[in-house]
């Protein structure tokens, strides 16, 4: 505030904001142009403006001088108040739920231990495994010869998953396409890049989803619960999550609200582990397996992969 006073016929110029006074107007004008005066008076104006509207809407940040004005505005404001998603907490919770689901799969694996042992014994003896319902050999196709001789150099399933070279494009596709299609595309593409005899998975009956898996250098019939295939999907989930920090480095604005990077990050985080509901997650896993088996089904008559 600038005040001009007259004392004993002498003009005194006083700047209360800066606690400055003088008797010459030229000196006073010079003071008004100083950096100190401008800084102090600008701060005062800024604080005054900020204090004018101290009541703000939590939805749209519109300010009001009085609480009554804000109250009327809140009744009409139709912007939905969406609290920021704590993405790191979401990912941690999904990982925890994924771990619990893995424990369930391990328990199922123990229950099928006896069945696995019988299958191993049959595989070691080199016998042709018959269909449990028809009990007939599959035409002239010798499954044992195909697996143990033609496909003897096939890679183990767990080694196949570990060797996959995921890209940031794969991570982003998971966010765009969703868990089922994203995971399925990664597996199908990787299997198609291998020769038929090098693949770790072969399906002999797509309807009954009869599938053989290369594990520990031996071909085995996966159980009706598809324990080995489900375990490989869990490993692929972990591989995909390992790419997330790299994606974050390439997209530094991922933690800034209302940015494309933040939206992509949330979608990737949520879709990388599938549904948090146990039954829904089981359906998603079975759908992925069915889609993958379509690309590795053997033509019983020709010994070739059905395209």
TrEMBL record:
Residues 55-84 form the C2H2-type domain. PROSITE patterns: ZINC_FINGER_C2H2_2. InterPro entries: Znf_C2H2_sf, Znf_C2H2_type. This is C2H2-type domain-containing protein. It comes from viral metagenome.
